[in-house]
## 1
Amino acid sequence: MSFRDYAPAPESTAILNLRPHYGLYIDGQWTEGGGGSITSISPATEKSIAEISMADSSDIDRAVLAARKSYDTVWSRMSGAERGKYLYRIARLIQERAREFAVAETLDNGKPIRETRDIDIPLVAAWFFHYAGWADKLDYAGLGPNPSALGVAGQIIPWNFPLLMLAWKVAPALAAGNTVVLKPAETTPLTALMFADICQQAGLPAGVVNIVPGHGGVAGTALVEHAGVNKIAFTGSTAVGRNIARTLAGTETRVTLELGGKGANIVFDDAAVDEAVEGIIAGIFFNQGHVCCAGSRLLVQENIQDEVVEKLTRRLATLRLGDPLDKNTDIGAVNSKAQLARITAIAETGEAEGATRWTLDCEIPSKGFWFRPTIFTNVTTSNTVARDEIFGPVLSVLSFRTPDEAIIKANNTPYGLSAGIWTQNASRMLRVADSLRAGVVWANTFNQFDPTSPFGGYKESGYGREGGRHGLAAYLANGGAR
Ligand code: NAP
Ligand code: MG
């Protein structure tokens, strides 16, 4: 008998009302795509969840035309207050069905139910509430006189926070008066399709939101290249983001890109060490490390390195990996076989290049895609694990002696999305934060998200901001930054 036998029963999937087959949601109707179909599976069990129709380029064309028509005839003529009412309605419907969304997201993505229940889905509702409140206040957003919508927004999202990434993109776009064509990631289309039902339930006019699952190289490319799209918002890999920027260079289409990261968590010797250890663990192991702003590099002041490493490895040993639907699970499944292969390959370079590997000693379920949480110590700045984005539960520990050295090392990356600073010294906190080239810097905490806060990158982490009034600017014609 192990401790786990006393664990409460997993969250029930009985509350789900999934259909065996999902089409595309275009112009307020369910329709079949021309790009074949795929089976969405649970990465924790490899069992199929539903069959999903895939869009081809003619479906993308239909979706963009529907979005254009609803923009011209309905949405752009509606008052902000009326648009806001729809967004409030959507937010409330998500709250009402929050448990169902949490279970579906966990099933499709593999992340722990504790996260979808307490973080992902509550934040989705919060995002819609926040932007609902902006819809009739665009004139007060400080974004210039008579802010106006761009038109049709094409949105391409990744698999790591499927519904939350949808919310980050759809809520501000609609509040600002745009209509939307959204392509979810291939491995996690489910909650976006459930969201289409929410739009229908909310009575959102046909064509305002169109959801088009499809292959990135087919549907994604067609959306990016479509001349009827006024703005592309993309979150995903730096490689694809760069391609999109290249395709759209010199065109009228506006672009925002939210790409990879290699965030530094910087721990000074005056930090509250136990709190810092919790923050470091959460910073890298939240969502199996499938987080663009993950704190994947730990920079610890040399004189407390042994203490921090000792506490970290002890904490690592207490993590519970397993059934993501179990409320006690800390580490769920890796989202796909391909991502597992990527993580495995990069992690293998760690030991080969001389780092010391610490791994959670645990059983791995016989089915599904799993990676044991891992910490590398004795890492140097030239090691692959310290340089490449792993996008998995792998932490690299480096050390520094002075604040200046910490700043240089933290900035020594082509990315610039996130950083964390742990110190009790307020002036040092502010000076270091000011010197970091990262879109978000957390102070004595990590991975906190709020709809009022702008989020986005420097350097190869992309450009543009999502969240707060900055996020609105990205969907307004005179909103400033491209
Ligand atoms: P990805 O290929 O960039 O996928 C992100 C989204 O873009 C998906 O919806 C994808 O569709 C779509 N897409 C793929 N190729 C496209 C193209 N040529 N044109 C337009 N859209 C396209 O990322 P991934 O392969 O899932 O993950 C690879 C790596 O990207 C990860 O290891 C991680 O380093 C990084 N990543 C970063 C984030 C982030 O939040 N910044 C999120 C996810 C991944 P399909 O699903 O059909 O491929
Ligand atoms: Mg899936």
## 2
Amino acid sequence: MTDLATVSFEETDLEAIATAEGRVAVFLPPDGRLGREARRVNRLTRGALARLAEDPGFAKMAPGDCRTLAYPAGMAAEVVDVVLLPRRPKPDEARRAGAALGKLRGGKLLTLLVGTTARAEDIVLGAVLRDYSFDAHKTKDKTAEDAVQTTPAGIRVMAGKPAELEALCAGPLAVASGVFFTRDLISEPANVLTTTEFARRLTELAELGVEVEVLDEDALAKLGMRALLAVGQGSDSPSKVVVMRWNGGPSGDAPLALVGKGVVFDTGGISLKPAQGMEDMTMDMGGAGVVAGTMKALAARKAKANVVGLVGLVENMPSGTAIRPGDIVASMKGDTVEIINTDAEGRLVLCDVMWYAQDRFEPAAMVDLATLTGACIIALGHENAAVFSNDDILANAFLRAASDEGEGAWRMPLGQAYDDQLKSAKADMKNVGGRPAGAITAAQYLARFVKEGTPWMHLDIAGVAQVAKDTAFAPKGATGWGVMALNRLVADHYETKG
Ligand code: BES
Ligand code: MN
Ligand code: ZN
């Protein structure tokens, strides 16, 4: 597992700056005026910092940009990172400044001279979030902590009011632990993260006070989840549904339900996918991964809300026992589905878990997340997740939360004409609606399993769960997209205050 960097807080000690090892980061406003810590670094480096600030190039730097002074004479540090930060940074600017440092840290000790800098908690969060690498299966070239044995590792924050800052950072660091949980789950290959192993990792959330229940195939069959079981029937890994309950709110308050698609590997089944790029389908449990990470974040920061997370864990494999195109299965709701394409499996999993979530928990609202369609990537690329909803208040609240957290999200339409594309000659519906509007018809399919009166939102995260390029807050690979936005949605709309 990838651990968060250890973060420690102490009062600014100007003497200790000279002897700090590893990297030392100092923050300068656009006018280049040196604060107390910067003046100390400047004295130690015999004016190098002031020369950097006076360089015309400095004024051209964007907020969060970083320049380095290497092997400064007069200091024990290998590098001084000089970061441009507006005097009153926006949360996003402060996070980006931190992220620039987190990217560079490379397992070495990083001392952040934040002093009385505004938004220091966002600097710390950015540094921690960007300082991620999935090295679980590397025996060489690790970038993580244990690869660097010579210097003490971690992030050391020197602040004017360290206790206050530490308290401000507690929530964000809890959320970061949820983001890392999601990234680790998404990054794991399918031979490691089987349905059984996924369920086991979720049971560990019990340590944080989450009630975790694992439903096995017998239990799912008794509940009538035949659509979900149909997807898993070609695999040797047993299908499971895991229910995670965080009861931090008033007892009796209807929970928010989060439902995740957890296809640990999607070969497409008998409608087999092409070989090219199929390895990416290790991330097809991304929706479940985000639900798990959000539950961890909420529990770790002891959110005063009732939230239940449900994930459908299956593997979509071709075999002698796999579902076939043309098969007709009955969902838990009772509606029958003609399976035209076994590669449109996510919706078969979600429809049963969504029905079960509403049946059992009568949630105040339900949000499902899934790496559901390639069509979503065609529509929105890797910048935005697609948001579908039957409730403007819920959708707008989420769009605001996502924008506040810097996670891209864009609303898409629903409508009767799209739903009509799902008509089947033999059953109540088909599992595909043809090529036009593929992300929307997938959402329409799910909408058929939303009960009258349940505010519902579907997030298609196919494009954002895992990306091929570094983002501001994550190296290329699993992003953890959605944990911060959902955490903010809960904080702003489902939490009892005080
Ligand atoms: N898991 C895929 C969607 C996907 C594709 C996610 C690429 C991430 C990256 C999903 O199960 C799928 O195969 N969808 C099909 C649906 C089609 C058969 C209607 C698709 O998008 O091609
Ligand atoms: Mn598929
Ligand atoms: Zn899939």
